[in-house]
Design a protein that fits this description.
Layout lengths: L5 E2 L1 H6 L5 E5 L1 H10 L10 H4 L36 E2 L5 E10 L7 E14 L3 H13 L9 E12 L5 E12 L11 E4 L24 H13 L8 E8 L9 E8 L2 E8 L4 E10 L6
Antiparallel strand pairs: 1-3, 2-5, 4-7, 4-9, 5-6, 5-8, 6-7, 9-12, 10-11, 11-12
Length: 292
Amino acid sequence: MADNSRFDHDLVLAHKFPETTFTYTERDAAVYALGVGACGRNAIDSDELKYVYHENGQQFVQVLPTFAALFSLGSLTNGSIDLPGLQYDPRLLLHGQQYIQIYKPFPSSASLINKVSLAGLHDKGLYSLAENLLIEQRTGDYVFISSKAAILELETKSYEKQSGELLCMNRSTIYLRGAGGFSNSSHPYSYSNYPVNQAAAPKIPKSQPFAVFEDCTQPSQAFRAVIKCICRGDANIINTISGRFLLHVYPGETLITEMWLEGSRVIYQAKVKERNRAVLSGFVELHVTPSL
């Protein structure tokens, strides 16, 4: 495959993203909950019915916290990232990780103002080749071979338009194969504008040599299991959510979510039952330590 990537990191860092808007209704929130499996096993499950239906009216329906992952879609152009100084083959783009900070429960319907900024820029350079080979030796999976790569971390803060209150922050880690090498250094280049205690070394998902279509419901199904089993249906105790994409999932496969409670942090991973392979991992931070 030809390398059609060009990267001017000075232009990328200088870019100011325009504000975007996102509007959703009670129906959107309910359809999303149904789409990720709410009430799929039991139509009157009280822990999940509140995300789909409310006897006093849909204006009282609750919103799953992972619905926030949709808020940042307005920063994409036809499903890709449009940045001055960044020219790349969109077929080589991978969504590696998603981090969500929840500041307050989401209203049943709202119009939001999204403020987008570049939270991180990392030049993996030739190190991406070594990293991919190490992953292959450890897991036995087929992975892509790339001589250079770049990682973008886009941060989106979503404010309720009417009140101006900050509802949540999304941080998306985007891996661009073939777009690195711009630092002209033998060492990887990194830029980030978020606190060190929030920084996590980006881990890149394994890739197969065929097209990958991302399904945003995959992590949402895992988080819903955490809400059901650990939070006892109370999503309001969730503080932060972090998920890392590890491997592809084929249509029709069965996902099993495993979780461990360590204080106020839930460590989880989602596995494909048919292949016994982990496809998603991460953690959920809670405001309180639940009693099981």
